[in-house]
Amino acid sequence: MHAIDVSNVSKRFRRNNTTTIKEYIVRGLWNRRPEPQGPVWALNAVNLKVMRGAAYAVIGQNGSGKSTLLKIIAGIMRPDEGKVSVNGKVSALIELGAGFHPEFTGRENIYINGMLLGLTKKEIGRRIDEIIDFAGLRDFINEPVRTYSSGMYSKLGFAVAVNVDPDILLIDEVFAVGDEEFVHQCKGKMDEFKKRGKTILFVTHSLPTVEEWCDEAMWLEYGVTRAAGSSIEVSDSYKREIFALENLKLIMESEKTNTGLEDAVNYGPTGAADSGAPSAEALAAAQDGGGEPGRRWGSREVEITSVKLFDHKGVEKYVFSTGEPVTILMHYDAHKTVLKPVFGFAFLRSDGVRCYGTNTSLQDISIGMVSGQGTIRVVVEDINLLGGQYFVDAAVHNEDGVAYDYHNQIHQMVIAGDEKDVGVCRLRHRWELPEALQAADGA
Amino acid sequence: MHSIFHIVKDFSRIFGYGNLIWMLVAKELKARYRGTFFGFLWSFFNPLIAMLTYVLVFSIYMKVQMENYSVFLLSGMLPWIWFSSTVNEASNSILSNGGIIKKIAMPMEIFPLVFVASNLMNFLFSIPILLALLFILKVQVGAPILLFPVLVLIQFVFAFGAALIVSSVTVKFRDFIYLIPNIIQIWYFLTPIMYPQTVVPEKYRVFLYLNPFSHFAVSYQDIFLYNKTPSFEAFTNMITVSIAIFMLGVLTFSKLKDAFPEEV
To answer: Residue B187 and residue B42: Cα distance in Å, rounded?
Structure first.
């Protein structure tokens, strides 16, 4: 038996939200309004079936129609076309504490909110202690809710909503608020719900939540179902698309950055890079002295004219997975013959943390001279950085570390890692556990 | 799509929310005078001050000769305050509860209804002043006063219908927020509340007849001041108009309400 059955549901965007009398008269009293050019669908022929006891996720970017779908299932909105049937008592957590009246006490608001959600006075009376304890607000329950912090407000809202004891719980991104402990508490309650065979429908941006919590998922895009099925598969294809889009954006951005390098503001050299300190310190200076992102400095006798990234097949790309090989191509243009140049590169995390950096001199590679244009190629066998946004720094300087051209936090890269390990990079490792422990784990 | 059966079934959902309505009415009444020194005594003072002003202007300055003018005034004015406050407050009731309407599925008719009921409570609270005045002025009161609950019931249906109309139409046409107080003001002067219907020239009487509230005002004056049962004609008129307005209200509201979650 399906708990939720949405068939062929469409919902049109209403554009002219409000009308003044003048507009109405101008359009011709009682005449039909002209249709907007081409129908704009918030939802277009969406089908969704959720089995009783399942946890289902609806994912998609902002404006994909996922919240509209949730509101239609909750009975708040009506579809323009199609049918929705829901078997069981529904509680929708769209905004925690919607309808709280600031002047009234927590206790009074529990009653009002509970009744808005469909509970009777008696039912609330029976559950009120449980609600107050779950929210952890026993000391403040007789204070007006305007004195509550936003965290307390959400807790009370959540406590009331879950105590409606619905058969079907609809959740729209409500865990984004509240402290760590509250989120933990909510998840505990969700676990309990699942165990008791209740149906849960999530609308979320958080893919880990989808993978961890949901059996099935649907991906909405501009009101149309892009994919539906097992949550892992849907979340994977959604992720691939997000990263493909990100990659496209970065390719375009890289193009812009590289062609715009000439116009890039030429900041004066800072710190050690100018004072002729050893090259290792020059590299460090980028972080310590020239910490502002997007800087370029140097005398420009040798210029780095572009920095591009490629995968092992030679396809230009800027979104990599942890462990993938990355090739960096640096094009240079030496305006005069320069002896013994040193080329270097570094990876910086978006918060400025230097993850790795090196140069030819540090690795005892000596380059005799450069003159005219050329390309330096660096192959990183496996980029073991964890998921996140990064910058690729590129530099050419003289033996003493005086920069000819230094690109600091200009070129972007994304690592699409979905590993749950923490830190900067993944160190190759393996676990060697005693047999006994392994057996215990499996039990 | 909107069969009568569905509309009635949908509307009848509000009966399941009786406790909530009472709670919201209590909230409304408490919120109204919260933080004021005299609190709910203001429901006495407001009509009393208005009455004293009229007595000063009409009985003293203009020397209008009318026996027990103060009783006459109050018996028409108190039900008028119930009706006019309801319409004024209900006109904004859907818009101001937008936060709830967008997020919780519930019968939205509750919001205008709360204002009908909270103003009814205010009306009932203010009746003791009228009774005290009747006692002080030794006005003879008899059996017709027992019709008071009947009048209240009919007016309740009338006010609820009007509240449903204004609350839903305002969402679509925001101009009504400003239009309604003006209509109410004009309506007040055209209703025989501060003057007896007999002062209206014969050829304009038809306006009194067409004005549904004039039948209410005259009926209340009959039972409180003149110890007289309102005419059969007045009752038929009030009942017919109230039921018609109520049905129009239910229909208008149900036709417009699907758009509320998007338009508020």
So the answer is: 24
Q: Helix %, strand %, coil % for chain B, to 5? A: 80, 0, 20
**Amino acid letter, residue A137:** L
Fold category of A280-415 in CATH = Coagulation Factor XIII; Chain A, domain 1 (2.70.50)
**Confidence class of residue A262 from pLDDT cuts 50, 70 and 90?**
low
Determine the Cα–Cα distance for residues B84 and B47; give it in Å rounded to an integer. 13
Give the minimum alpha-carbon distance from B128 to chain A in angstroms, rounded to a whole number: 29
Check pLDDT > 50 for residue A378. yes
Residues A163-180 pLDDT 10s: 888 889 898 876 666 677
Cβ count within 10 A of residue A168: 21
A123 touches chain B (CB under 8 A): no
Q: Judge if ipTM > 0.90.
A: no
- Is A17 at the interface with chain B, CB within 8 A? yes
pLDDT (0 to 100) of residue A286: 43
User: A98: which chain B residues are within 8 Å (Cβ-Cβ)?
Assistant: 99-100, 102-104
CA distance A96 to chain B (A): 9
Q: Which residue in the set B19, B100, B105 is minimally distant from A121, CB to CB?
A: B19
**A76, A100, A105: which to substitute to probe chain B, counting the most B Cβ within 10 Å?**
A76
Q: Which of B19, B34, B104 sits opposite A103 (nearest CB)?
A: B34
Give me the residue spans of the domains in chain A. 2-240, 280-415
Indicate the fold that domain A2-240 takes in CATH.
Rossmann fold (3.40.50)
The pLDDT assigned to A339 comes to 92
- A5-60 per-position pLDDT tens digit: 999 899 887 665 556 666 666 665 555 555 555 567 889 899 999 998 899 999 98
- pLDDT at position A271 over 80: no
Decide if B263 touches A, using CB distance below 8 A. Answer: yes
Contact A120 B19 (CB under 8 A): yes
Spatial separation of the C-alpha atoms in residues A319 and A239, rounded to whole Å: 12
pLDDT in tens, A95-117: 777 778 888 889 989 998 888 88
Site from A16, A21, A29, A113 to mutate, B interface, most B CB atoms within 10 angstroms: A21
Residues in chain B: 264
Among all chains, which residue has been given the structure tokens 């219908």? B161
Looking at the complex, does the CB of residue A121 fall below 8 Å from at least one CB of chain B? Answer: yes
Lowest mean pLDDT of A110-124, A126-140, A206-220, A249-263, name the range: A249-263
Q: Is A98–B259 a contact, with Cβ atoms under 8 angstroms apart?
A: no
Residues 6 or more apart whose CB falls under 8 angstroms from that of A203 comprise: A57, A58, A59, A66, A67, A69, A70, A170, A171, A172, A173
Are the beta carbons of B31 and A98 separated by less than 8 Å? no
Q: What is the pTM of this model?
A: 0.75
Task: Enumerate residues 20 to 39 of chain A having a beta carbon within 8 A of any beta carbon in chain B.
Answer: 20-21, 24
Tens digits of residue pLDDT in A422-431: 888 888 889 9
Mean local confidence (pLDDT), B196-209: 91
**Half-sphere exposure in the Cβ direction for A428 (13 Å, CA):** 3
End-to-end CA distance of chain B: 23
